[in-house]
């Protein structure tokens, strides 16, 4: 089957789908599935825009709301993960994944969920949402709207529990998606060409600090056939040969591809041919092993800011292996009567944007999505949003008791501190996040926009890519001799991909149920320069 893979969508669904339709008209190529590697921006209304961690100049409604309302329908089944520029309140409704619009499924925070695995035509597709940030990695998922300047960013930071769950998987993964790149992957592709296009990556590449160590850990463990990423707004391919643990184990390799952002004349979209099960249906399906892992790890869910470590074999934990047996997988299948089809139970949970009636003062609310309620009830899982609400209520009760004690102390001493009319929350004083790419208001040092060939009758795309035979790899993406072993070079030449087109969240706001600097200015300047360069061509692209 043909699978289309897109980079950062940034809400431009119309442009993305129009590109696919153009391919069909000109070259009779129609993908069976579209994968999007984050920054999808499923923005339904003005409240969603306020939950997106971007400067005001980038807060545009774009076109997702038309698909949410039903005005339009995605022409191809679309599966996506979350990035670091998302309507986090919307995606947070679906921690285990779910439909954000008809025919558009979120694998992570409203797609695949925070992390997840699904199947389509027998192809096993996994993903993890968000980006890596070390100081949030060991926390629970405690954030909820309305967000402050910290939680609006920490909401999309990867957590160790999601990585731990994914590492319990034993069965092979065909395709895996992450928003940020696995750390070190650039050593397995044409590093020189990458640095030629993005020279401001050099220091991080040479110090091996570019990318996510969590994603790198998953890459080493899962060894998927394909790994797709986005985030850095540059196209880059690599081929990683994995080491075997025993002589009996067959060698495994991962074909990595990072895509550019979705804008006209950008090389943001890729078509690949993927081997599939001809006898499998055309519906998106649950993955039985993943459901079993969710059930096995349900007791580990944490919705507090307390940092904690996952169980490991260090003498401190009675249990550290949460991988599941074939019997547990069989039990899941029996629970579902061997019908793994994901129900098409999309439900509107927020008012849709109406251009004729702008609602600029609408406040985001913490919502429980019926899809999540149904999913948790079916498999006996904890509804993360419901648990967050319980913690909030418990905190409210504790707060009342503390207020009573303060009043008693005031009566006995005859004095108490007068409440201040000023906001004493200083959590928003520093919003610099040096570990991640952020949109920047300032201009750029250089114009790094890249040009790709727009599909045309004179330049037809090559769609010969497949798991077993990927023949067309752009010369610029070949592994250079100083980057990999000769054997990897040889394999990459045979392999190729056809060229195409971000603490005060536990607040007292009621839950809405829907029925049915790190120190050092030089470091900051370095990140700013990188951010500026990545987004340098933003305004230019919009005028093309």
UniProtKB/TrEMBL annotation:
Stretch list, region Disordered: 393-544
One term of GO molecular function: metal ion binding
Biased composition (Polar residues): 421-433
SMART domains: DBR1
Cofactor(s) listed: Zn(2+); Fe(2+); Mn(2+)
One Pfam family from the record: DBR1
Gene3D superfamilies: 3.60.21.10
Protein's cellular compartments: Nucleus
Lariat debranching enzyme C-terminal domain span: 240-385
Tagged with keyword ATP-binding: no
GO biological process: mRNA splicing, via spliceosome
Biased composition (Acidic residues): 402-411, 437-448
Family that this chain belongs to: Belongs to the lariat debranching enzyme family.
Name of the protein described by the UniProt record: DBR1 enzyme
Species in which this protein is naturally found: Rynchops niger
Gene transcribed to yield this protein: Dbr1
């Amino acid at each position: 089957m043909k699978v289309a893979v897109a980079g950062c969508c940034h809400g431009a669904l119309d442009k993305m789908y129009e590109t696919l339709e153009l391919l069909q008209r000109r070259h009779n190529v129609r993908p069976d599935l579209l994968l999007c590697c984050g920054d999808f921006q499923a923005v339904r209304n003005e409240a969603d825009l306020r939950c997106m961690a971007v400067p005001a100049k980038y807060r545009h409604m774009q076109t997702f709301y038309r698909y949410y309302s039903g005005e339009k329908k995605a022409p191809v089944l679309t599966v996506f993960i979350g990035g670091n520029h998302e309507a986090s309140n919307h995606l947070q409704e679906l921690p285990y994944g779910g439909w954000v619009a008809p025919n558009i499924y979120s694998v992570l925070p409203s797609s695949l969920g925070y992390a997840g695995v699904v199947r389509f035509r027998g192809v096993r597709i996994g993903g993890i949402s968000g980006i890596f940030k070390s100081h949030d990695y060991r926390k629970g998922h405690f954030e909820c709207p309305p967000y402050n300047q910290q939680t609006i960013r920490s909401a999309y930071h990867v957590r160790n529990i999601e990585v731990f769950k994914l590492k319990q998987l034993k069965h092979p993964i065909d395709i895996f998606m992450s928003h940020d790149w696995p750390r070190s992957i650039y050593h397995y592709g044409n590093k020189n060409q990458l640095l030629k296009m993005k020279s401001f990556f050099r220091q991080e590449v040479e110090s091996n600090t570019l990318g996510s160590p969590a994603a790198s850990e998953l890459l080493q463990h899962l060894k998927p056939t394909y790994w797709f990423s986005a985030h850095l707004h540059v196209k880059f391919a690599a081929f990683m040969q994995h080491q075997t643990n025993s002589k009996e184990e067959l060698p495994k390799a991962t074909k990595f591809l990072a895509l550019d952002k979705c804008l006209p004349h950008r090389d943001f979209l890729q078509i690949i041919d993927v081997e599939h099960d001809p006898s499998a249906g055309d519906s998106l399906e649950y993955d039985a092993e993943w459901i079993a892992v969710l059930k096995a790890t349900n007791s580990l869910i944490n919705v507090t800011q307390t940092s904690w470590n996952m169980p490991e074999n260090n003498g401190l934990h009675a249990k550290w292996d949460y991988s599941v047996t074939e019997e547990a997988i069989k039990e899941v299948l029996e629970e579902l009567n061997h019908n793994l089809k994901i129900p098409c139970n999309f439900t509107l949970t927020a008012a849709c944007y109406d251009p004729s009636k702008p609602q600029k003062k609408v406040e985001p609310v913490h919502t429980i999505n019926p899809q999540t309620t149904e999913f948790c009830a079916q498999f006996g899982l904890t509804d993360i949003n419901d648990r967050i609400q319980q913690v909030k209520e418990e905190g409210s009760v504790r707060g009342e008791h503390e207020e009573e004690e303060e009043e008693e102390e005031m009566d006995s001493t005859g004095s108490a501190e007068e409440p201040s009319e000023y906001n004493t929350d200083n959590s928003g004083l520093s919003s610099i996040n040096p570990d991640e790419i952020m949109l920047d208001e300032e201009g750029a040092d250089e114009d790094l926009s890249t040009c790709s060939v727009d599909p045309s009758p004179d330049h037809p795309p090559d769609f010969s890519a497949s798991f077993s035979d990927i023949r067309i790899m752009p010369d610029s993406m070949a592994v250079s001799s100083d980057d990999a072993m000769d054997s990897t070079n040889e394999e990459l030449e045979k392999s190729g991909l056809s060229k195409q087109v971000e603490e005060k969240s536990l607040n007292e706001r009621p839950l809405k149920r829907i029925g049915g600097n790190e120190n050092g200015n030089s470091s900051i300047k370095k990140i700013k320069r990188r951010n500026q360069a990545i987004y340098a061509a933003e305004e230019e692209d919009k005028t093309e």
